[in-house]
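=== Given protein ===
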Amino acid sequence: MHNHLEQSIVEATRREFLTSSASGLGGLALSAHLASELSAEDNSPQIRSRPGLGSHFRGQAKSCIFIYLAGAPSHLELYSPKPTLKKFNGQQLPDSLTKGVRFAFINKNATLMASKRPYQQHGESGMWFSDRLPHVSRHADDICMIQTMHSEAFNHHPAQMLMCCGQQKFGLPSMGAWLNYGLGAPSKNLPGYIVLAAGPAARGGATLYSSGFLPSTVAGVLFRSQGEPVLNLNNPKGLNATAQRISLDALKDLNRGRFGVLGDQEINSRIAAYELAFRMQSSAPDLIDLSGETKRTLESYGVSRKGIPGDFSRNCLLARRMVERGVRFINIFHGGWDAHGGLEGNVANNCNVVDQPVGALLADLKQRGLLDSTLVVWGTEFGRTPLVQGKDGRDHHPHAFPIWMAGGGARGGYTHGRTDELGWSIEEDPVHINDFQATVMRMFGIDDKKLVHRFKGLDFRLTGVGDTGHVVPELIG
């Protein structure tokens, strides 16, 4: 009885100590590469139960930069020209098109609204872009434009979870976590999955880069582009590196001993987190230090443009530096695109922020020979309706919308699928979000159907547990 009580007190004290120690090192659950030593829960040759066991076959992509425009930009003002809308501007859609369709805010009696933006074809491929994207459009022949994305989610949070995590549910791993889990993290001194954010926060928050039920070492780690990269990463005053190393070694011995008793794999994940956080105290500040970049590079990304916030520009430049240092997956979130009103101003202001740095990122990666192995995705949760909301806004439209990707094996200069002349519904080659995710995994050499983790009796994968997620081979070059 006495021994049992004493053991409970020791365990409670130890948990408090581990929690406080973790917060002192950034509160991180980092790096998949050390976690690759964890034992498997299922030894089936088709089931990947440990991080970093390698690909199923050769894939061209080695890193991914996923630029997520939270709030959903209006594609009708960017890269989906619909001249027929001008002919029917101000008219209602026929009941046959709106019957049974759910809207977030407007009703079926809303009228059509034509875009005011002029469009032009670009590159040898003749890909269409509006005047809002003069820098991105220069890379038309490297871009794979998917015009026919669709999903079932018409509100932001569930739709963002679907795009980032494969399902409209909390507690599931994100795409970056799955890739980190399957392939491991090439860098020893940085996390395999890093998150950068600019503008208003995405509704989904940290759920969009969570590890879910996978080991915590594969979760996304939020970095800041200036100042201290990860909060609480640095040592407190009076603690030098030697003293910290001694403390970490002692803590590692305690954790290993406890792992021998409990066999809890998260203990090994905790050890990996401490060790990576220690190394990051030197590697992370070096990563965000842009003093070694040329003036021409900084200007090309628009880091110091007058009147335009520089955080997104810095994030794009940092993403390139992360790829060079072996980071597997980088999320760049940019919020503020939810234009239920003031559409023209919203699109203009946001494009002024993102167009130049994204164009510079594509050019920089290509010039350095990195674009072939780096998949760049420009994505969002859904599109906007061709119907007007209020005076000058557009509502949510998950039934037909575009996203694009470039590099990493994507088929450049290719436009996939076709929507109707109003941009209301898909006419050819629909691509569900899960299909897109399965295709991205294939570009990394991962068979989505085989990268599985058993949780609560189900074999989960990124795209779900049923017959979901089918590779679209036309998207791969």
Q: What stands out?
A: The domain at 29-475 is CATH 3.40.720.10 (Alkaline Phosphatase, subunit A). The longest strand covers residues 143-150.
